[in-house]
Design a protein that fits this description.
Belongs to the peptidase S14 family. This protein is α/β, with parallel strands linked by helices and 295 residues long. It folds into two domains: 28-221, 2-enoyl-CoA Hydratase, Chain A, domain 1, CATH 3.90.226; 223-294, no CATH class. The chain has helices at residues 28-37, 71-81, 97-108, 125-130, 157-182, 186-194, 201-206, 223-244, 249-257, 280-294, and strands spanning 41-43, 52-55, 86-92, 114-123, 135-139, 143-146, 197-200, 212-214, 219-221. Strands 2, 3, 4, 5, 6, 7 and 8 form a seven-stranded mixed beta sheet that branches. Mean pLDDT is 78; it is low at 1-7 and 262-278.
Length: 295
């Protein structure tokens, strides 16, 4: 036991790369599914305790809004909570996988029980974070998605071999954590990761990734939050689409930035493309570009 925790023994820390030149993030279809199926899901109660950490955003620093869930911010929240149990409410399509590994490590070091509540979706990097919970609750209509570490790379066959070799220990470490949490064989977890597996609430419990269902009356759809989530996600989807077409992330951001505004780290929402969901002209232009790239 660690600090009196009665639940499962926490697994070892996950490796985090010292060299972050390789970006690992959720693929575009995952982020689109989050925007379609889980955006705007929030806790039903307006009031919540001061020991609650909410993760209703992408994992990692979000260049477009100045938000995002980072290990640095989670560490600060844990320090503020202090020597008490913690509740983490999560609804995220993922994002930076390596930042997710770091957040997992930060949470697992907390000396008191952590209750993880999957309100809508815990996909990709967010699913790794969910495994830090000593107790994991999931909505009946919620999903947990696991997959291999996903990157965009360019180069010749030697470069791709190097990238594959670089990613191997991270996939292995995640499979180990999923197995330790669920009680499943590591080989089975690796197989599910390789095939990008979506686990509904009941299936996540059946396979040991979660412990119990989250009562439906603890969740609601916040329409204002949903509109903001969807609008911001369209900008992120545009960035990923441009990256998949061969641009660097810097080039993709510059292209989107040229449409309107000058986004930066904590910008004014009025200057951030689509951040408040109130720029139909920009959203129409981006949707047209997305359709062109997908056709």
């Amino acid at each position: 036991m660690i600090g009196g925790i009665q639940a499962r023994q926490r697994p070892n820390a996950l490796p985090v790369p010292a060299d972050r030149r390789v970006s690992a993030f959720s693929p575009l279809p995952v982020m689109e599914r989050w925007g379609e199926d889980a955006a705007g899901l929030r806790p039903a109660a307006l009031e919540q305790g001061d020991n609650v950490i909410t993760m209703f955003d992408v994992i990692g620093e979000d260049w477009w809004s100045g938000g995002g869930i980072t290990a640095k911010r989670v560490s600060a929240q844990l320090r503020a909570i202090g020597d008490r149990p913690v509740e983490v409410q999560i609804n995220s399509g993922g994002g930076d996988m390596f930042e997710g590994l770091a957040i997992y490590n930060v949470l697992r070091e907390h000396p008191h029980p952590i209750t993880m509540k999957i309100m809508g979706m815990a996909a990709s990097a967010a699913s790794v974070i969910a495994m830090a919970g000593d107790t994991v609750q999931i909505g009946a209509a919620s999903f947990l998605m696991i997959h291999n570490c996903w990157v965009v790379a360019a180069g010749n066959q030697n470069d791709f071999r190097e990238v594959a070799e670089f990613l191997t220990p991270f996939d292995q470490a995640m499979a180990d954590v999923y197995a330790a949490r669920s009680g499943q064989d590591v080989a089975d977890c690796a197989k599910w990761m390789a095939s990008e597996t979506w686990l509904s609430g009941s299936l996540a419990i059946e396979r040991g990734f979660a412990d119990e269902l989250l009562p439906a009356d603890q969740m609601k759809v916040d329409e204002n939050a949903k509109a903001a989530d969807v609008a911001a996600n369209e900008v992120r989807a545009m960035e990923l689409t441009l990256v998949n077409s061969g641009m660097t992330r810097a080039q993709a951001r510059a292209r989107i930035k040229s449409l309107k505004g000058t986004p930066g780290a904590a910008p004014d929402p009025a200057d951030t493309p689509g951040a408040d969901g109130n720029d139909p002209e920009l959203m129409t232009a981006m949707q047209a570009l997305l359709d062109d790239f997908r056709s």
